[in-house]
Amino acid sequence: MEQRNAGKHPEPPRREDASHMEYMTEVRNFAIRSWFPRIAGDVSSIAAAAGLPPAITRDEFAQLAPQVDQIPAVQGWKRLMRSQQQLAWQKLQDSYAADREYWEGQLTEAEERNRGRLHYDPDFVAPESACQDIHLQPGGYCGDNLAGYVFYHGTRVFYQGDNDFDEIHDSCADVMKLPADGQVRRVLDLGCSIGQCTTALKERHPDAEVRGLDVALPMLRYAHMRATDMNVDVHFHQGLAEDLEFSDGTFDTVFAYILFHEVPKHTFEPIVREAFRVLRPGGTFTVIDAPNADRLPPPNRMWAAYDAQYNCEPFSPAFGAADFTGLLAKAGFEDVEKGSSDSFLYNTFAVKPL
Amino acid sequence: MNTKHDELSRAQVESIGLPGPGEEPHFLPHPLMDRLFEAVIVLGGELWIERDRRRALESLLHSKGIVAPEEIENHSEADTEERKQELSALVNRLLDPLRTMQSESGTAAT
Question: Pairing mode, if any, of strands A186-190 and A209-214?
Answer without folding.
Answer: parallel
